[in-house]
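Reopening this ticket.

The earlier resolution said the output was attached, but the attachment link was broken on my side. Pasting everything inline this time so it's all in one place.
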Amino acid sequence: MRARQTWTRREFVVGATLAGAAACSIQHESETSLESKSSEPFPTLFVSHGAPNLIMSALPVREFLSGLGSRFATPRAILCISAHWLTRQPTVDTSPQPKTIHDFYGFEEELYRMRYAAPGALELATEVADTLASSGLAVKREERGLDHGAWVPLKLAYADERVPVTQLSLQPNESAQHHYQLGLALARLRASGVLVIGSGGATHNLGELGAGERLPQWAADFDTWLDARVRAGDAPSLIDYRSLAPNAARSHPTEDHYLPLLVALGAAGDKARGRTIHHSAAYGSLSLRAFEFS
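Inline output:
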């Protein structure tokens, strides 16, 4: 099937009911045996995952994601915060072997045959739940699997499927401040061999998609502001972006693809600064910028 140049919001739709238990179990050692090769704390990351078929594209961001895992020591586990898991309260995935969720339709058939078979990070999921609970946040545990905001970039970055992974949900009914605090509560993870990845989009307006790899001015202005505030480590402005950033509502009509950035920023610590590690655009108006925080 020939790839489309434009997509409707319907074709990016996030999956609905995601249930079912994984059939296989994992030995405890599968998570702990993949120890970090370095005593240095991991950075935290924010990546823009674009359209689901980014994994089949010739876009520069695909090449970037394919080399992302080689930038760091091997983590003992990965915690992914994706724009495509939205719940009323923080929820962590406890799947022993997370299923690959194809939470989209209207794309190439090959995409629906893809699977990401990394083991679940059960020890990390428990640690995340306990850590958030100790910070006063009620946390649910659920066997869910990996949505495309998680498995598409991970299938490129960690193609050997050996690093255990779990997901933590977003709460769209809560504030930007809530999500930054969620990250802060998890900040100690990066010193214990965990790689925290927020997966969303630097800009994400599905109503203004089109062709081309150059941002329109309204999106470019927001993208430039975002880069400057991240480099400055300006958490208050990044939290209050809706009031301070140019074209914020146009760049993010809904906040789901922005909030993972705030979790990743918080998870790097309260004095964290970031830097751009990739910058490109696609689909007419989507910035695919990626950040590293430390």
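Reporter confirms the inline version is readable. Residues 134 and 185 are 9 Å apart (CA to CA). The radius of gyration is 18 Å.
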